[in-house]
Amino acid sequence: MLKKSIVVRGILSSSVLFLIAGCEVGPDYERPKLNLPQTQAKADEEVAEFLVEGWWRIFKDKTLDDLETQALKNNADIKQAIANIEEAAAMADVSVADYFPTIGLNASGTQAGLSNAAPSSQGGKYRRAIDYTGTIGASYELDFFGKYRRANEAARANLLASHATKEVVLLTVTSEVAKTYFALRAFDSKLAIARRTLKTRQESYLVYKSRFENGYCTEFDYLRMKSEMDSVKSTVLDLESAAAKIENALSVLIGTSPKNMITRKTSRASTLESLKIPTTLPSGLPSNLLARRPDVVAAEGQLIAANANIGQAIAANFPSFSLTGAFGFEGASLGHVFTPSTEMWNLNQTISLPLFAGGRIEGMTEVAKARYKKALAIYEKTVLTAFRETLDALITAKKSSEIVATRSRQVESLKKSYHIALTQKESGLIGLLDLLDVERGLLSTEMELTNALQNKLNAIVDLCKSLGGGWNIEKTK
Q1: Residue 288: CB partners within 8 Å, gap ≥ 6?
Q2: What span, in angstroms and rounded, lies between the C-alpha atoms of 166 and 304?
Q3: Does the pLDDT of residue 52 top 50, yes or no?
């Protein structure tokens, strides 16, 4: 056992010495210096508190809360992102294993038949050769130039990127759930407007039909009213078809089973107009925007991994140092194998240095450098996109409120105009065509107001997403 201890101690102590003295070739990672804009201290306070999961509660809608909860639990993209994290974590564990020796148990027994004429020390009277061995072996490649440490650095960076990518998927899925839900609510509002208009047209059609049949109006007016009624009926059918498709899209987002998709209906407890829309917005860009944005974090994780891979490729140019050892027993019979007199052990040190590989090592180093340049370009573009999306979202969120207010005033004016035109038509001051023009204008403007409300809600969703999960409303008041 003393000899076994010498073997194991020799391998481990040599490993420790080489690890302590070892270096890491290749460039150490430094975050790229970018020309970033200055931010406001007030904006930092306003966006100080945020959560990737839960940002949608800003709308204070229970149906939306329930839909988001289902999506977090069942959405296929989120499940895939979680699986990617598990894979990256396992790969990080694998890279750590290279730091330690590989130890294995080996046992074998062999028997060989000998010819009577075969020469032997016993004069040929033995017909069989028997040998039994049992050994514990250990091998270890010393990470003198940091090949495995760079691999572990890359694996940990990829794990970081996987976690951040999951946050990207969460933000994307929950944002799409909210927008799809708002689209469904918008179609509900448009359907209510169209059905109300259709009811009016149907009532007018019946009046003109009776008048035409009794000779009190021209066929032109009768057919025109019938055409207007059918036009609105087509609009209702189109909206019903679109609403059903939006319902199906929402079912996919929240992970509803195909069977439940057929019968599932989203709650219609609230209308688009009744949804809570925040009126206070952040005043500017937060200084920690890049740290808040999971897509930027993911891109930087990939950049760190690409940088570490350069060092791993460069390390292939240097010598590799390996230690192998074994301790065990060997004997001619099982009964005598495990006796002190049959002990065996060995300890080997190996140094290998690549002299010629046809340019493969140099080529792999250039590949690693090129991949780093690509990752750097992706990172820089992601940062630029982050600022663009945030600035666009801030502008759109602020302007959407003004658009809603303008459309609301326009609808109120057209409603008054419609009532005046209806009175004038009954008094004979204007014709049917004039009344229909006002009615069509009112229908169109009410639809546009609904679109403006939906766009305002979507703008808030985009702002939350661009900020990495919303902002602290109380700080903006």
Answers
A1: 44
A2: 18
A3: yes
The 3-class SS string of the chain reads CHHHHHHHHHHHHHHHHHHHHCCCCCCCCCCCCCCCCCCCHHHHHHCCCCCCCCHHHHHCCHHHHHHHHHHHHHCHHHHHHHHHHHHHHHHHHHHHHCCCCEEEEEEEEEEEECCCCCCCCCCCCCCEEEEEEEEEEEEEEECCCCHHHHHHHHHHHHHHHHHHHHHHHHHHHHHHHHHHHHHHHHHHHHHHHHHHHHHHHHHHHHHHHHHHHCCCCCHHHHHHHHHHHHHHHHHHHHHHHHHHHHHHHHHHHCCCCHHHHHHCCCCCCCCHHHCCCCCCCCCCCCCCHHHHCHHHHHHHHHHHHHHHHHHHHHHCCCCEEEEEEEEEEEECCHHHCCCHHHEEEEEEEEEECCCCCCCHHHHHHHHHHHHHHHHHHHHHHHHHHHHHHHHHHHHHHHHHHHHHHHHHHHHHHHHHHHHHHHHHHHCCCCCHHHHHHHHHHHHHHHHHHHHHHHHHHHHHHHHHHHCCCCCCHHHHC
pLDDT at 234 over 80: yes
> How is residue 350 written in tokens?
């190996």
Q: What pLDDT does 377 receive?
A: 94
For 359, other C-beta atoms within 10 Å of its C-beta total: 9
Is residue 451 pLDDT above 80, yes or no?
Answer: yes
165 token code pair: 């990518």
Give the C-alpha distances (Å, rounded to integers) separating 341 from 330, 337, 338, 461: 9, 9, 8, 79
In whole angstroms, what is the distance from residue 361 CA to residue 47 CA?
48
Q: In the predicted model, what is the mean pLDDT of residues 287-314?
A: 86
Give tens-digit pLDDT for 165-189.
Answer: 888 888 888 888 999 999 998 998 9
What confidence tens digit (pLDDT) does each residue in 244-285 have? 888 888 888 888 866 666 666 766 666 777 777 776 777 667
Which tokens sit at 65?
A: 């809360």
Mean pLDDT computed over 365-393 = 91
Q: Which residue has the higher pLDDT, 260 or 411?
A: 411
Span 143-173, pLDDT tens digits: 767 777 888 888 888 888 888 888 888 888 8
Burial 333-347 (b: 16+ CB within 10 A, else e): eeeebeeeebeebeb
Question: Could you tell me the two tokens for 253?
Answer: 């987002």
Domain boundaries, the chain: 2-115+128-476
> Which has more confidence, 126 or 393?
393
The second-level CATH assignment, the architecture, of 2-115+128-476 is Up-down Bundle (1.20)
Question: Which two structure tokens, joined as six digits, stand for 469?
Answer: 């999960």
